[in-house]
C-alpha cells in the first residue's frame, strides 16, 4: 500500500480507521477497510454519498457488518445445515462464505485510476473450503459510475466450484418512495424459498424483503424523493439480482450474484474453474444526477 501526502491512497482515522482513495481527476472518493473483508465502506460520487453504513454496528467486530459492499465467496446465501458436500467430504461453510470476514490486501493501481483488493486462501479457509485460490477485485470510479472487475484464480490441482456475489447497501431517502425498474415479473422469495410475484415483493419493501430475480438487462433503483437513480449493469455470469431491505434502515441492497442459494448443491448456475484456470466477473453501478443539484465535494 502507498501512504504519502501526494498519493491518492491515504490512511485515515476518521470517521473510523480506513484507507481513503480520491480519484485524481474527479475527486470521487472511496473508503476501504481491507482487514474487514476487503470492504468498500463508502463511495462518494459528485459529492453524493451513495452507500449506507451502520457505523455503530461496524465498530463491534463481533457483529456482522450492515453496510458498504460486502463480498460473497465461495457461496451466495446459505447451505442446508451449513454443509458443503464435496467428493472429498462434507465441510462446514457459513452463510455467504468467508471472504467478507477475512483480511484482504489493498494496493493502488499503477495508473492511479482505482484500487485492487486481493484475497488468498489460508489454513482457516481450506478447513471450510478445501481449495487454493486467489481473488483479485479492481474497484475503479469512472464518470458517474463505479466499475468492479473480479478475477477468481483456481490454484488447486482439481476443479473448483464456487459462487460469487456483491452485497452493496445503497442509501435511500424513503423506502415508501423507491421504484425498481428492469426486474422480471416472477422471482424467488428467499424468506419462503418459493416462487413469487415480483410486484408483490416490491410492494412490501417497507416491511422487509429478500428475493432473487433473473433480469434480462440492467436494473435501476429510482429514489423518487431525491430524484436520483442508480443502475446496476451486469455481465454474465454475474447477472442475477437480489433485492433486500431491512427496515427501519433507509437503505436497499441491490446485489449482483452469479448463482442462487444452494447453487453448489443444485448445480443451478454453479461455476467451476479447472485446475490452474480463472474466471472473470464484472459489473458496474452508474448514477443519474441530472435531476439533482450537485452536492458538495467529497
From TrEMBL:
<dbReference type="Pfam" id="PF01263">
    <property type="entry name" value="Aldose_epim"/>
</dbReference>
<dbReference type="GO" id="GO:0016853">
    <property type="term" value="F:isomerase activity"/>
</dbReference>
<dbReference type="InterPro" id="IPR011013">
    <property type="entry name" value="Gal_mutarotase_sf_dom"/>
</dbReference>
<dbReference type="InterPro" id="IPR008183">
    <property type="entry name" value="Aldose_1/G6P_1-epimerase"/>
</dbReference>
<protein>
    <recommendedName>
        <fullName>Glucose-6-phosphate 1-epimerase</fullName>
    </recommendedName>
</protein>
<dbReference type="GO" id="GO:0005975">
    <property type="term" value="P:carbohydrate metabolic process"/>
</dbReference>
<dbReference type="GO" id="GO:0030246">
    <property type="term" value="F:carbohydrate binding"/>
</dbReference>
<dbReference type="InterPro" id="IPR014718">
    <property type="entry name" value="GH-type_carb-bd"/>
</dbReference>
